[in-house]
Design brief:
By secondary structure, the chain is an all-alpha fold. It is built from 4 helices and no strands.
């Protein structure tokens, strides 16, 4: 979580709570359906969340804008090969 705050220090308290809750949510769901590599769960914020947030560093979105992250990671690659 510290790495998120390093690059996004102006998050609201609500946003901080939401991002902090991600680790437990991903750990729980990952044990059921393998959302990300179980070997990489310790790097959730750096390898997964921060990458998804990267666009917010280069584009200033208007309030209310909705964004969808359509990742094309290894799981998608493996499904087709």
């Amino acid at each position: 979580m510290e790495i998120i705050l390093k690059y996004f220090p102006d998050l609201t308290e609500e946003q901080k709570k939401q991002f902090a809750a991600l680790y437990d949510l991903y750990t729980d769901w990952n044990s059921k359906i393998n959302v990300i590599s179980r070997k990489d769960i310790e790097n959730l914020y750096e390898h997964h969340v921060l990458h998804s947030l990267g666009i917010a560093k280069v584009i200033q979105f208007r309030p209310g804008t909705k964004i969808m992250d359509l990742g094309t990671g290894g799981a998608v690659f493996q499904a087709f090969h």
